[in-house]
Amino acid sequence: MQTLKDSFGRTFPYIRLSITDVCNFKCGYCLPNGYQVDKSDNRKFLRLEEIKRLAKVFSKLGVSKMRLTGGEPTVRKDFFEIIKILKNDAGIKRVVITTNGYHLNEKAKMLVDSGINGINISIDSLERNIFKNITGHDRLPEILQGIKILQQLNFENIKINAVLLNGINASEKDFDLWGEFIKENKVDLRYIELMQTGDNLNYFNKYHISSKIFKDYLNKKKWIYQTFGKDAGPSLNYINPDYKGKFGIIAPYSKDFCRTCNRLRITSRGDLRLCLFGNTGISIRHLLQRDDQIEELQDLIVGQMKFKKVSHYLELGETGLTKNLSTTGG
Q1: Which of 28, 110, 230, 290 has most Cβ atoms within 10 angstroms of its Cβ?
Q2: Helices and strands, counts by H and E, the chain
Q3: How far is CA 247 from CA 157, 202, 239, in A?
Q4: What span, in angstroms and rounded, lies between the C-alpha atoms of 36 and 318?
Q5: C-alpha to C-alpha distances, 85 to 66, 94, 106, 291, 313, nearest whole angstrom
Q6: Neighbouring C-beta atoms of residue 156, cutoff 10 Å
Q7: Which CATH homologous superfamily contains domain 14-327?
Q8: Residue 2 CB contacts under 8 Å (≥ 6 apart), including other chains
Q9: What is the DSSP string of 108-141?
Q10: Distance CA 110, CA 80 (A)
């Protein structure tokens, strides 16, 4: 059986599949002016039958986990149908999603009923006015209500992502607020270090701060580092026996960040990206049109693995093809 393995011995059981570039938030670090149609790319987003063939091929190549991303994946009208296809037709064992939480209070039960295995929600601050300033939306209460509903329905695999922004949400007071939240809620809160993309250099220079500030906070508060499983993400996780939830750090500028890379990315228009910040991408969409193309598609994907680099070189200011995070699913 063919498997996904690169030249450095890394294996890839995890695919991040963007199903749309569209996002209904206006986060300063990603889409400060909201979603703008890319007139230079008139390809439509992947269709259901294309997603089904894609997932079947990756399942044959040993992929056990797929994350649906965007943009905001829930804006697709066939979003729940996509989940059903991945789980029931394509044989993907774990299907998880990343969402901004828009109308989460209304969607929570449908998400649980869909059979998803995990949900990551972007919440950059627990202070309502700061959340609104970052996202352009005053929707923190409905998102927190949605989390409560998920918990009432006994859905446990909930993670919250917050982008670390200097002078906005990176103080000890901010960290303490999250500490109070996860003390009473079985939720993993991960701070993500702000990443430079092709069009956010000024924002990056103004608000970037090393994730070391949060790591120092965790060490000071006696949090305990925890190892992670083979299909886990890049988060460095910390536990405290007095807390129901966990803290985590995603530090893309750290020295060994790429050493345990275990995921590949597919863009919403059918391009294979070996790295979020890579300089190359190859369209595989032409091999998603018929069921008899599966073997050729497998060979193409496996062959591309030799081009995966050891690192993204983000620390050198190389942002590759990533103009903004909505185009490749973050």
Answers
A1: 28
A2: 9, 12
A3: 14, 29, 7
A4: 24
A5: 12, 12, 22, 15, 36
A6: 10
A7: Aldolase class I (3.20.20.70)
A8: 60, 61, 298, 299, 302
A9: HHHHHHHT-SEEEEE---SSHHHHHHHHS---HH
A10: 8
Q: Which tokens sit at 255?
A: 């020295």
Considering the entire predicted model, what is its pTM? 0.89
Query: Which pLDDT value is given to residue 231?
Result: 45
**8 A C-beta contact, residue 185 and residue 126:** no
Contacts for 255-262 with beta carbons within 8 Å, 24 or more apart?
257/311, 257/312, 258/310, 258/311, 258/312, 260/10, 260/234, 261/10, 261/234, 262/10, 262/11, 262/12, 262/13, 262/14, 262/230, 262/231, 262/232
Q: Cα-flanking dihedrals φ and ψ of residue 188, to 5°?
A: -95, 125
Token code pair at residue 223: 């949090």
Sorted by where each begins, the domain ranges of the chain are: 14-327
pLDDT number for residue 121: 98
Q: How many CB atoms are located within 10 Å of the residue 259 CB?
A: 12
CA distance 274 to 7: 12
Cα 276 to Cα 263: distance, rounded to the nearest angstrom: 10
Per residue in 2-39, pLDDT (tens digit) is: 789 888 888 889 999 999 999 999 998 888 888 888 77
Place of tokens 């309502």: 128
Question: Is 273 strand, coil or helix?
Answer: strand
